[in-house]
Amino acid sequence: MSLLQFFKSNKSECSASVAKERLQILVAHERLNRSGHDFLPAMKQDILKVIEKYFQVADNTISVRLDNEGDCSTLEVNVQLPENS
Amino acid sequence: MTTSNYSQDLNLARIIVVTSGKGGVGKTTTSASFATGLAMKGHRTVVIDFDVGLRNLDLIMGCERRVVYDLINVINGEAALHQALIKDKHTENLSVLPASQTRDKEALTREGIQAVFDELAKDFEYIICDSPAGIEHGALMALYFADEAIITTNPEVSSVRDSDRILGILQSKSRRAEQNLDPVKEHLLLTRYNPTRVEMGDMLNVEDVQEILAIPLLAVVPESKDVLKASNHGVPVIHQQATDAGQAYNDMVARFLGAELPHRFIDAPKKGFFQKVFGSRA
Questions:
Q1: Contacts with B277 from chain A: Cβ below 8 Å
Q2: Nearest to B157 among A23, A30, A36 (CB)
Q3: Helix, strand or coil, per DSSP, at residue B16
Q4: For residues B133 and B154, what is the distance between their CA atoms, to the nearest angstrom?
Q5: B108 vs B281, which has greater pLDDT?
Q6: What is the pLDDT of residues B15-57, one digit of tens each?
Q7: What whole-number distance in Å separates Cα of residue B96 and Cα of residue B167?
Q8: Which ipTM did the prediction report?
Q9: Backbone angles phi, psi at B46, to 5 degrees
């Protein structure tokens, strides 16, 4: 690294590490989407139907996520119940 | 792998797709030099242009004026395979099968390609498929039968992302994936690498790209003016053994064939005292 670069690099973060960070997030997300879990939207609708029997909930108050970390997969279902229930 | 598969594989040529998703990263340059390199090592090799409608491999190989018939002609039965194959003038053991310029892309059918490959396998050890860019029909056909894939990637965000998508397609839509065979063997080829810009922190480095794509590195080809010069002449850059790019492709072929060589062209050239103090324009 030259002296000039030393002073320059203090001012702005190096762009390659920004690129790496953005790619890591993006690629992890896209891999999850194509990892064969096409059933998630359908499962979300099924869960919603069961909940609807007991609560009045809107479609956008439920979120379903499937995460893979190492050997472990977690299914996260998040339902926001209406305040007066 | 089961015994029946294994004995079957022994009779078959090895099919290798050069692919990337993104355009302009060096697929055709790589296909031309890789195929030439395999042939120079004595392996009977054919390189096929799958870019129906936009053929370019013939230009890079320098055989554009000798094209009479093409891949689609053969698939449609309008020409025999031996009529369409062009023997390379510089290298023994090497033939080129050009793409069609005009025909309908849908003529590229799995059954048709399978028939052509079966016939090629009688005469060739390696079948190199130069994939078109994108993830449409032509690209899917080029990778479908692959045993191995050369993922050509530039150290640049969109290229890395597209390479990852192509890896996903290889793992789900290739013949090997569909038939539950051993997966397609993936190799990373990093092209247009500029070690000086990497050192400046302006370009993703080899380790970054490898970490993101998580596939083994076959070779790094440095950004080089000689690649354009070679394509101007229609002579694959691997023939220019005095150049960095030529040597990088030579290493790539040797490693592919099993040689263990240290990776080169990863570090920036050493600078003199004044350059160290004042920096230099990359």
A1: 2-3
A2: A23
A3: strand
A4: 14
A5: B108
A6: 999 999 999 999 999 999 999 999 999 999 999 999 988 899 9
A7: 26
A8: 0.80
A9: -125, 140
